[in-house]
Amino acid sequence: MKRCWANTEAAMTEQAQQTQIKRTVRKLSLIVLGMCGFAFALVPLYDLFCEITGLNGKTGGPYIFDEASTEPDRSRLIKVNFLTNTNEGMPWKFWPAKGAVRVHPGEAKTVSFFVKNTTNKPMVAQAIPSLVPFSAADFFHETECFCFEQQMLLPGEEVEMPMRFIVGRELPKNVGSINLSYALFDITDRVDISTVVGNGDQDQLPAAGG
Amino acid sequence: MSEVIHADHHDDHAHGPAKGLKRWLFTTNHKDIGTLYLWFSFAMFLIGGVLALVIRAELFQPGLQFVQPEFFNQMTTNHGLIMVFGAIMPAFVGLANWLVPMQVGAPDMALPRMNNLSFWILPFAFGMMISTLFMEGGGPNFGWTFYAPLSTTYAPPSVTYFIFAVHLMGASSIMGSINIIATILNMRAPGMTLMKMPMFVWTWLITAYLLIAVMPVLAGAVTMMLFDIHFNTSFFNAAGGGDPVMFQHILWFFGHPEVYIMILPAFGIVSHIIPAFARKRLFGYTSMVYAVASIAFLSFIVWAHHMFTVGMPLAGQLFFMYSTMLIAVPTGVKVFNWISTMWRGSMTFETPMLFAIAFVVLFTMGGFSGLMLAITPVDYQYHDTYFVVAHFHYVLVPGALFSIIAAVYFWFPKWTGKMYDETLGKIHFWLSFVGVNVTFFPQHFSGLAGMPRRIPDYPLQFADFNMISSVGAFIFGLSQVFFLYVIIKSIRSGAPAADRSWEGAKGLEWTLPSPAPYHSFTHPPVVKDEEVLG
């Protein structure tokens, strides 16, 4: 919209104003871009926050533990319950050898889980752990776990999967029992089966990547 | 509103509007665009209202009478989305377009062409979203908060249209906000310092900053959904290492400031209307400005109070509980100031004032139920019940919506040069006031008794409350059709309005003729303290 200005002074003011407006718009656009970046930065930030605080019940990665140097805390016995479930649409069977074990904090223990591919095609699965109470998540360590890797099973195959864990001596005093749940997800579509199998019978496998 | 046409000829230097449809398609005039926004939001309001009446008709009695649960879910979802993004937000942007340039003494918005674009994106966004209701598999059915995995793994195929619609309306809001901030910061008449700005301008300045801060986050959330659905990523999919709870955090990081986006401009409107009809200066102008700024700041650190039940450590629950309750302090300051403005004023009760007073009373009630919900231990009982539905409808309907209706009646004479019919306006007010309370007050009780939200059927014990609620909803719905009649009748045959249409109205817009000329303040006005400070 063009306006008729009475004198050149006013026209100059208008020009100065347009420059100011452009400067404001530039600054505001930077905020918008910054907030777009922030939205995506929330994803790693969220993971980092959960890792530090243990808030989403995820247990950490493989834990290095020197058994010889740690004395178990014999004054306490912690009950660890194991829950297994398969995600919706996942036909495999998945169960723990024992529903629960009792351990002293600082004492390593190995338990077993079983998994069976009930279908007639090879499939790949991934187990995701989740632990309550959250306040125990930082003190529950897996030195060895099937959840660190993907499982590829041939039709009808059944395997025993070991899991070695240790409950830290620093576990808060008010925690008497820990519930550890594993959810098994079908990730066949997401992975290249040949990379998981790595052997010669690839001609009977479905196309990689689904 | 079409009365602003007063140019019989036009050429390249035309100072009046173009004729016919082109006027509206290509307009860069802030008054035209304001009018477009207001009519668009009213159309969306009626559509969203029809969806609400489908919901209330189904809930009139227990059992399934009219619609199936799948369709019911689409109704609740689209009712929420259309009312939030299609009715309330564009109505406030429309008011900002009409009022901000006139109130700061500017000739137009800072970026008139972008203004045109921000409006004309909206009909396409909502056309796309509403069209999904007629697609195979139906429209969005996952609630207006579209939590993953309901909106990703289990979503209907039309969800992609929903995602693009949200992208478009987000772009529209961001452009509109940049425009409003650029106008307010750079185009004020000489002498109008920040602390002399009218409250509506102040509240919109802060709202616009909230919008440019959180709309990109919403865009990010729906983009991640798009990637999860079509490109095999796992932002919200636990099987691939993602986390559905993260979706809730991202959504509410947008969502909580969003609810203040829908109420801060309402605070501004009421801060104009109450002084005008109490014939007193607004009590505590400075504290009003600081209260709005504090509410805006606090809105960024309270989001997880929507998610108390997802599992959160005690420290987190306490933090979000206390920060939420802290919002009651600046809000209390505002309510106190409005009441103090009325105290010993020479009050008259024209329609805008009635809506403004109802706003103060009913919004405060909605605020109190919000405080109840902020208490973490009791939220475990209230979460996802009709108590929540009652709470947010009390702050949005007699809150945001009543303030918009009040603004329409208050500035109607300035926009059209005609006075609305006072008797019809009062009938509209009383029907709305009774309707809104009959609809939403019983929902507090059914909610406390445990009725979950978003269900098409319910146990017999809730039958009476729901029947009352449904009757109220139809009263309220029909009274808004009556509002349309009042507006059209007044545009056609209202009595001519004076320039200063209300005895106690203060502000630069009232120094202009009624109706406001197509181009106003082409030369900056002289800002007098007694005019802008009331």
Summarize the structure in words.
The complex is a heterodimer of chains A (210) and B (534). Chain A is elongated, with a radius of gyration of 28 Å. With 210 residues, chain A is of the alpha+beta class. Chain A folds into two domains: 10-53; 67-197, Sandwich (Ctag/Cox11 (Pfam 04442)), CATH 2.60.370. The N and C termini of chain A lie far apart (57 Å). In chain A, strands 3-1-9-5-7 form a five-stranded mixed sheet. A four-stranded antiparallel sheet of chain A has the order 2-4-8-6, with no helix packed on it. Chain A has helices at residues 8-53, 193-197; strands at residues 78-86, 93-96, 100-103, 108-116, 123-132, 140-144, 151-153, 158-167, 177-186. Chain B is mostly helical. Chain B has a single domain (23-532), classed as Cytochrome C Oxidase, Chain A, CATH 1.20.210.10. Chain B has helices at residues 20-26, 30-59, 69-104, 112-131, 159-186, 199-230, 244-261, 264-278, 285-298, 314-326, 328-342, 351-374, 376-382, 386-416, 422-448, 463-493, 529-532; strands at residues 418-419, 495-496. Chain B has a two-stranded antiparallel ribbon. In chain B, helix 8 packs across helix 12 and helix 14 (386-416) packs antiparallel against helix 15 (422-448). Chain B is globular and about 65 Å long. The relative contact order of chain B is 0.11. The chains are: A alpha+beta (210), B mainly alpha (534). The interface between A and B is large, with 42 and 45 residues.
